[in-house]
Amino acid sequence: MEGTMKAAHLKGLRDFRIVEVPIPRPRPGQVLVHVDKVGICGSDRGMWGGHHFFNELYDWSDFTPGEHGHEAVGTVVELGEGVDGIEEGDQVVRIDFRSGLDLQMACFAEYALSDCCIPCNGADPEAMCFTDPVCVALNHVHHALAAPGDTVVVMGQGVLGLLCTQLLAHNHVNVIATDVFDRRLRLAKGFGARVLNPHAVDVVEEIAALGERVQAVIECSGADEAVDAACHVLSRGGRLVIMGATRTRITLNYTQMRIKGATVCFPMNGVGHKDNWGPAAELLAEGAVEVKRLIDHRDKLENIQQVLEGYNEDWIRVILEP
């Protein structure tokens, strides 16, 4: 294909602009995908607001049109030379993954390239936008090393927290879910978790009173007080799996972690275990993970700046359509 396309370009602090750029051309081994739908991740909001740790990895001038949109589903419109297993018209996920780094996807655009997309024909396209976060959640559940009957605390019930809660509950793990938003706690309870609101109760005291061994805490909130509480509720030999922190530096309670002989994990897809993109896409295509109820707002990509400016903190996920 030739011509131009619209893309959202993060030009500076709280400044997404819609620009017109050439449609990329697939090289050998690549496919060109029309982006049908793309979610706004918490990292996208954080970078736009200048308070995510990604902001310490990139200068504003490093961002290119379309970055950092990554929760996308699209339709293959052109094949590069030597592509096997993918056909024009296929619905796919894992788009714009050319460098092998999740952090460099660029699907806030009408078109994007990929060299390792995954077909998902016939699946609900909105559900498939969650492939990336389900992949991340699978990584976290893996590192928790929880067996059926174990107790795991999931702190923060945003997208990742709710997905971890579901996956653990499906594996017959006893989940205690925490969050400050009652609606999110209701969702977590519906997925089988016991729930606690740290604005209403002392989470550390409440969990201690249960008298259960806490095998792992998966921290998805990014709140300093949650990280501190996680160190306290974790049992001896347990595992603290951290994802929610959005800053370069976080504080761990050394005394608690040392006397418990605890392990701290910072999962990264494909590092130390298998790549979970394929399993994540399969779970969503089969409807094994509930995600549609997590979508609170739908809009056009061209309105991304206005959506971020008016973002409702109670929203769990926004889906954009280029």
Q: How many β-strands, per DSSP?
A: 15
CATH homologous superfamily label of the largest domain: Medium-chain alcohol dehydrogenases, catalytic domain
Give the number of helices: 10
Question: Biggest β-sheet: count, sense, barrel?
Answer: 7 strands, mixed
**What is the global morphology?**
globular
Low-confidence sequence ranges: none
Q: In words, what does this structure look like?
A:
The chain has 322 residues and is of the alpha/beta class. It folds into 2 domains: 4-130 and 291-321, Medium-chain alcohol dehydrogenases, catalytic domain (Quinone Oxidoreductase, Chain A, domain 1, Alpha-Beta Complex); 134-265, NAD(P)-binding Rossmann-like Domain (Rossmann fold). It contains 10 helices and 15 strands. The strands form 3 sheets. Strands 3, 4, 5, 6, 7, 14 and 15 form a 7-stranded mixed sheet that branches. The mean pLDDT is 94.
Reconstruct the topology from this structure.
Blueprint: E1 4-12, E2 15-22, E3 31-40, H1 42-49, E4 71-79, E5 91-93, E6 111-114, E7 118-119, H2 125-128, H3 131-144, E8 151-155, H4 159-170, E9 174-178, H5 182-190, E10 194-196, H6 203-210, E11 214-219, H7 224-233, E12 239-242, H8 254-260, E13 263-265, H9 277-285, E14 295-300, H10 304-309, E15 317-321
Parallel strand pairs: 8-9, 8-11, 9-10, 11-12, 12-13, 14-15
Antiparallel strand pairs: 1-2, 3-4, 3-6, 3-15, 4-5, 5-7
